[in-house]
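The pair is listed for reference:
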Amino acid sequence: MTTWDLVGTSHHMLICNGGTCMKKGGEEITLAIRETIEALGLDEAIHTSRTKCNGRCKDACVVVAYPAGNWYNVPDEAAARTVVTQLMQDGPKAHRVYTIEDGALVRTEETPAIKGIAKNK
């Protein structure tokens, strides 16, 4: 296993590699994100991690970017590149499903994503 020195990292992208996301291009999206980070020379600024299910399968492939805490539906490699290139500019608006306001996740007004079911039953 690798232990990275993350000093200087300003963003962390959690890329869903769960079953549904993988069926909808998760591997290609993960590679496109990482290739774009490298091409832009942002390796030290943006760290990526593959995750299992992030719980928003209808938004596959799901990418969460911190420290802002924005959640994105990234349907293809072009969208993956857009999210990375805009990340350093106050976070991309395109493809964003959730953002954090007053310490809690809220749906963005521009998202076409479905609301989903309540967790408290």
Observations:
- The mean pLDDT is 90.
